[in-house]
Batch of 3 targets.
Target 1
Amino acid sequence: MAHSEAERRAMSRALELAARGPRSRNPQVGAVILSPGGEVLAEGWHRGAGTAHAEVDALSKLPEGGARGATAVVTLEPCNHTGLTGPCSEALLAAGVARVVYAIDDPGKTSGGGAERLRAAGVDVEAGVLADEAGAFLEPWITSFRLGRPHVTVKWAQSLDGRAAATDGTSQWITGAEARADVHRRRAEADAIVVGTGTLLADDPQLTARIDGRLAERQPVPVVIGTSRVPADAAVHRHPANEAVGGQPLVYPTHDLAAVLADLRDRGLHRVFVEGGPTLVSAFLRSGLADRLLVYVAPVLLGGPRLSLDDIGVGTIGDARRLVIDHTATLGDDVLFEARLRERRPWPGKEED
Ligand SMILES: NC(=O)c1ccc[n+]([C@@H]2O[C@H](COP(=O)([O-])OP(=O)(O)OC[C@H]3O[C@@H](n4cnc5c(N)ncnc54)[C@H](OP(=O)(O)O)[C@@H]3O)[C@@H](O)[C@H]2O)c1
């Protein structure tokens, strides 16, 4: 049976509920239980590893038998395995749910298969409702899960002629206020914000997320990569998120980006926002470690030698890194291109499921 308008609305609500959960090793998942007539009976969301999964959280708010014949609307396929908690497919069956609607399949080999189990037990199951929205929301977690490393967004601002700075190294600001506000909103959604020592020494950036001139509630942890010494009075030492990682920004005196990402993942930092400059951004692209690109292009010419990218490992046109543009936006006078690489290179050490 095709999903109803009430189920679509419930999925939209379930995505809102999912966002209340913490960003951790586990996915953020939301659930809504609907009566056969489409009224909301209960809502739930997952609060992190070891706590109830979203659908079980929602069911727990109903009296015994309260979900009999109901529809469970869940953002991720109900799991089918016993981890720290029991399988959600069994909990839904025990509650007597008649129909399950979910957005995207569970990518896990061990946790997946919930839909099959439910169908085999006679439950009507529909997958793919608001799959694009749910997929975009869970993309960082899916990357982290599949590849065993954080999801990496690489951002830079450039002039129309492809420069990241003027000849003397000044780059504040190439783009206008609206584009910069967009960057700050995205910073607030990230777990870590990364620069190379070149940018740290040239710009002394604060690396905070500021919205309407005020510090955002959620702040990404600042990360500096490179062997040059970070000055004791660098602004990044006063970053409010340092507290979460022992009082100091995370400084990695290395060029081994894979090792840095592995450490960030171990610290539970799954959404990494790389803000440059050109040397570090190019190194991420060269290593195949950029999942999403945000390129802010300003209608200005800078000329000169400071290109927004240097060597990204393309020696000949046949090796060009082709992109898929997912989204463009006009932000004041500037244009944002949101893109991903058409071909993603495998992450060494962990095969894709
Ligand atoms: N337009 C923009 O969006 C934007 C953004 C940021 C900066 N900028 C501008 O860019 C300029 C700074 O550029 P930049 O390229 O020097 O900055 P950068 O990319 O931030 O830093 C480069 C440094 O990062 C370190 N590093 C870490 N991992 C590396 C790796 N895998 N490969 C190579 N180097 C690695 C190296 O430092 P060590 O030698 O210390 O190891 C390298 O010299 C400034 O003018 C700044 O204003 C522009």
Target 2
Amino acid sequence: MRRLNAFIAGTIVATGIAITATISYGADFASVKELCSNQWNNFQVIRSMSGLTAPTDEQFATYNKSAQAVVDAETVRQNKFNADKNHHNISAEVAFHAGEIVKAAQAKDQEEIQVQYRWLTISCKNCHRMYRTDEKLSP
Ligand code: HEC
């Protein structure tokens, strides 16, 4: 009986942890490499905005989704792969500018997306320059 209670308690705790993890992250990554290749895919979606023609509503929705995915992935980075304070701050910088793209895409503000995209590029690059100097990473 005691053993059964312990089992039930364990199951409840495990379920609780699983649910919390799903709610707080949305996405999870096994490694920084995996996380960053996902960032790269979403980064390219945002970059695909040419600036020559006004995006359609559907395109704004796509930029919104990709920028939100960048924010979510940086949250995972900060919780799971944090190296030190500077690393955390650079990641927060990336999340901030991606968050501004989310807002701009919702407001259908093409110019602001372009401005924030440039800041985003610099922010991604900052971490690669500081922590992966030898690898010629893009951005
Ligand atoms: C806080 C640090 C940090 C930030 C911010 C960061 N990266 Fe990275 N990135 C890394 C590290 C560390 C690696 C090397 C991973 C490895 O190979 O283990 C990497 C690797 C990469 C790679 C190569 C992946 C591969 O398959 O080898 C790409 C592409 C990349 N990052 C894109 C991005 C983009 C786009 C952003 C911004 C949206 C970004 N990164 C933001 C730290 C960061």
Target 3
Amino acid sequence: MVLFYNQNDLMPIYTYENKHDDMHCTYCSGGFDVMQKLSDPVLELCTYCGCEIKKVIKAPHVKTGTTGSPHSTLSEKNIEKNDFTQYRKVGKGQYEKTAGKGPNTLKANH
Ligand SMILES: [Zn+2]
């Protein structure tokens, strides 16, 4: 099994936000970050409340003083400290949380 956070892969962090202001839960209302491979499917629904979410495009070269280079491997401790959520792929379109806040599993619609 290939781990979702295989350190040989570049793992961009995607931010998702809720599409609808009046339909959200506390998890998706403020947006959340997910580390995904470029080849992984885009998430479409919040796994807590089931409403639509959208991927937010971030600048590709974000300078952060706390997380270091995007090419370096974040430890799970740092991921939690920096409020990221990390998932690993456990099956087709299924992800299991390894660090951070958020639902324990994610399902992609593809
Ligand atoms: Zn939600």
